[in-house]
């Protein structure tokens, strides 16, 4: 880019030390320089566009990955919460004295996890 002004002055014959016949060659060099400069700017815009598209695609992929990780965390949170409540060793929980209390809790955990899993699948999070 800095050569454009100097080549233009040399091509127009504004430099006294350059003969008029030689300034014709400098005009040709200035034209070539301008064409090459435009090509370089075009390539620069193309590479910038490709880089921007690549960064956008990477962001979309990262968002999909984070959504999938969050879905699995939500799925794991359900049994963790239920088991956490039962791990507190309360004496006054009605299902603790029942012979079917323990299997009932496992059934509830399985049903809730299945419902959450289906919901996440339907919304394309898994």
Automatic annotation (TrEMBL):
Pfam families: CorA. The chain crosses the membrane at residues 69-88, 100-120. InterPro entries: CorA_cytoplasmic_dom, CorA_TM1_TM2, MgTranspt_CorA/ZnTranspt_ZntB. SUPFAM superfamilies: CorA soluble domain-like, Magnesium transport protein CorA, transmembrane region. Keywords: Cell membrane, Membrane, Transmembrane, Transmembrane helix, Transport. It is a multi-pass membrane protein. PANTHER family: CORA FAMILY METAL ION TRANSPORTER (EUROFUNG) (PTHR46494:SF1). This is CorA family divalent cation transporter.
